[in-house]
Amino acid sequence: MALVDVLAVVPPGSADEALARKIDFDRLPRHVAVIMDGNGRWAAARHLPRVEGHRAGIESVRDTVETSARLGLEVLTLYAFSVENWKRPETEVSALMSLLRRYLRAELKTLLKNNIRFQVIGQLDRLAPKVREELQAAVTRTAINTGMHFNIALSYGGRAEIVDAAREAVRRGLRPEQIDEDMFGALLYTAGQPDPDLLIRTSGEMRVSNFLLWQIAYAEIWVTETLWPDFRARHLLKAITEYQKRDRRYGAVSSDPVGALK
Questions:
Q1: Residue 250's pLDDT is what?
Q2: pLDDT digits over 148-164, tens only?
Q3: R_g (Cα) of the chain, nearest Å
């Protein structure tokens, strides 16, 4: 995947094309994580039920996944449903799960066609059996794919993930001196995947909302006022161009001594 793959689907002369041409494909973030926020506000602004915001957000998921694959990202993780979201009204939770199943049925052929590997991270035992079956079917069907790794964080919480990893360490009988950061990372839901280089949040909120707390330790954060149902390829391209302007030091001294003091 490269520039030509992106240009093949963006309108010639558009802002999308201009942004795509600014991207350095040799310095792409390996892993992009997205907090998809603003569905409820999108619906409220249009005097619609909240579920209509979630429904509209499916098109944003489709566009983001396909654009990420065309760019050649290694991993894309979308935050779909948190452990805290179980507190929402039962009707809304049911509608969300129904939309998820519908998305998987509609998009499975696209995932296979584009060599995308699908995975779900989170406390999946809390999901209804029919939902788990649908998710597992998609995971199994795409397991042989070798392209982009697409994670959906579902019934997910960053703190819960860390606790689960600690419990797994105990279950395996690991001694304290055996556990370092690499070992602990291998016990997380994202084991074997690179940590996010870029964290995107929509709707303008300035918080990480219990998302990939261990993994985003050194992620660059990009926030847009755009509500998730309005998020499209151009927003992802903009986020990546902004990411590539940053000097990632990981706590080290900047190569620009003057810049380090700013």
A1: 74
A2: 999 999 999 999 999 99
A3: 19
Quote the pLDDT of residue 1: 63
**Contact call for residues 148 and 110 (beta carbons, < 8 A):** no
Whether residue 201 is predicted with pLDDT greater than 90 in this model: the reply is: yes
Q: Let me know if residue 259 belongs to a domain.
A: no
- Among candidate residues 5, 63, 85, 164, the one labeled active-site is 85
Domain presence at residue 252 = no
Q: Which amino acid is at 115?
A: N
* Residue 37: active-site member: yes
**261 occurs within a structural domain:** no
Domain count, the chain: 1
Query: How far is residue 126 CA from its own chain's centroid?
Result: 21
Which CATH number does the domain housing residue 137 bear?
Answer: 3.40.1180.10
Q: Share the mean pLDDT of the chain.
A: 93
Answer yes or no: 114 catalytic: no
**Mean pLDDT along residues 72-101:** 94
Q: What is the pLDDT of residue 262?
A: 47
Full 3-state SS string of 127-191: CCHHHHHHHHHHHHHHCCCCCCEEEEEEEECHHHHHHHHHHHHHHCCCCHHHCCHHHHHCCCCCC
- 141 residue type, one letter: R
- The residues that bridge with 198 in the sheet, in sequence order, are 32, 220
* Phi, psi angle pair for 196, to nearest 5°: -60, 135
On whether the pTM is more than 0.85, the answer is yes
Burial track 129-168 (b if 16+ CB lie within 10 A, e otherwise): eebeebbeebeebbeebebbbbbbbbbbbbebbeebbeee
Backbone dihedral angles phi then psi of residue 97, each to the nearest 5 degrees: -65, -35
Range of the domain at 110: 3-245
Q: Is the pLDDT of residue 110 over 80?
A: yes
Indicate which residue of 5, 16, 24, 37 is catalytic. Answer: 37
